[in-house]
């Protein structure tokens, strides 16, 4: 599972570097790092609630589990939405801090920000499968996503460059 997650997170960068080279890949990597910051609150939620989620699942208390997770998941989405909007609004300036060549990643960054919003909106579904003892299903879903990610990257990058890589990431995030 962990290896598939890592592959899924790096596929866009690897394929982009392979197909178009470092001049385009460098700014894209920066865009991915900026977008990845948006998962901070979601990661904190997973860490804070994992034990309680597992305990409620094991006792079959699904109603209590839903009640426990509903408000924090919504709060995490709202907390994430604010920096996404700010980064979106100022993305040329933020990318420009790293050099003029990095501003080319603005469209890709905006797509990656959307991907992270989708990720946060759907919350901790993947982790819920693991905590419910359904690691097998989670692993299969991750593997399917990884294969789809590779295929989409090879299809989209030649035509759309780094925006194609970002769109592939968005597609497998959903």
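^ Assign residues to that structure.
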């Amino acid at each position: 599972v962990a290896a598939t997650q890592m592959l899924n997170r790096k596929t866009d960068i690897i394929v982009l570097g392979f197909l178009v080279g470092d001049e385009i890949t460098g700014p894209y990597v920066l865009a991915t790092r900026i977008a990845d910051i948006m998962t901070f609150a979601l990661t904190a939620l997973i860490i804070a609630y994992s034990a309680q989620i597992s305990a409620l699942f094991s006792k079959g208390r699904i109603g209590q589990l839903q009640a426990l997770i509903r408000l924090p998941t919504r709060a995490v989405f709202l907390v994430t939405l604010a920096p996404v909007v700010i980064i979106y609004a100022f993305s040329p300036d933020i990318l420009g801090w790293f050099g003029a060549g990095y501003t080319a990643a603005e469209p890709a960054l905006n797509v990656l920000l959307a991907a992270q919003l989708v990720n946060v909106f759907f919350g901790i579904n993947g982790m819920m499968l693991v905590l419910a003892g359904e690691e097998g299903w989670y692993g299969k879903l991750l593997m399917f996503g990884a294969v789809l990610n590779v295929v989409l990257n090879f299809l989209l990058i030649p035509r759309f460059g780094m925006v194609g890589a970002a769109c592939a990431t968005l597609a497998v995030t959903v």
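The chain has a mean pLDDT of 89.
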